[in-house]
Amino acid sequence: MFHSVIGQDALNVRGCGALDIRFRPLSDGHGPIDRAYQSGCLRMRLPRVKDGAFSNAVLLNTAGGLCDGDRLDQKLAWADGASALVTTQAAEKVYRATDQGARISTSIEVGDGARAEWLPQETILFDHARLCRQTDVRLSSNSNFLGCEAVVLGRTAMGERVEEGLLEDRWRIWREGRLIYADAQRLAGPIDANMARAPVGGGARAMALVIHASQAAGTLLAPARAAAESVHGLMAVSSWGPLLVVRLLAQDGAVLRHDLGLALRALRGGRPNPRIWGC
User: Fold this and answer.
1) CA–centroid distance for 202 within its chain
2) Stretch 201-205: mean pLDDT, rounded?
């Protein structure tokens, strides 16, 4: 059942949005959604695509981007045995901020035997943008998770540069209540100048993080490193225990999209990337 609500908070903040979605296993006579709540500028759609046993959901920000003071709260859950991919309709744009900036909070819960894919399109930061993003993932003992976040620092085709700004990006992953992965990134002040430094970005203006968590993560190390041979930017792959992590750097968003597509196809067993990505 779908619920759409516009509350007082959504009226007071231009880009306030919330989602609470729970997927269930596909069965005769029942759709893939067990619970769906949406409010403010956030919406969810279910396209008719063929992707094996995976259901597909597309998230939309009807505000068209994030400005100063905007916030998005996203809760995604997979019931035991559910298989679903969640992506976004378009790249998320974060515009100039003068005060607190924008915030995105994503909470993901994956049940036993479930297969979850969180593959949003890239986030584009404009000059003087400020974004704080937190992603929390809670896994069961036998769940399978694949997630990514990509960031583009200005559209190079438009001659844009992020001279100043703030990006804070934090990931936390728990399995059966035990923290197994923590990652924090912070770029502040002269972002373009900092990214030009070799120890930071080596001149890159686009980057991505891909995380795969499953008992079979180690078996994907060879395919992922094989994909790295064909990238146009830089790609590094590491695996330990039930985790595999891919990091990418690229000179612009187009190169990053190409390289990220290669990495994801390797980790998805050759399955095509979300059709809405256009690659």
Assistant:
1) 23
2) 91
Asked whether the beta carbons of 110 and 116 are under 8 A apart, the reply is yes
| Cβ-contact 153, 251 below 8 angstroms | no
CA dist., res. 104 & res. 23, Å (int)? 21
Locate 156 and state its tokens: 């190079």
The two three-digit tokens of residue 35, written as one number: 């619970």
β-sheet bridge partners, residue 45: 58
Beta-bridge mates of residue 136: 107, 172
Residue 80 structure tokens: 């035991």
**What pLDDT, in 10s, does the model give residues 11-61?**
444 578 999 999 999 875 677 998 999 999 999 999 887 777 788 999 999
Strand 123-125 and strand 92-94: the pairing is parallel
Question: How many C-beta neighbours within 10 Å does residue 254 have?
Answer: 16
Measured distance between the N- and C-terminal CA atoms of the chain, rounded to whole angstroms: 32
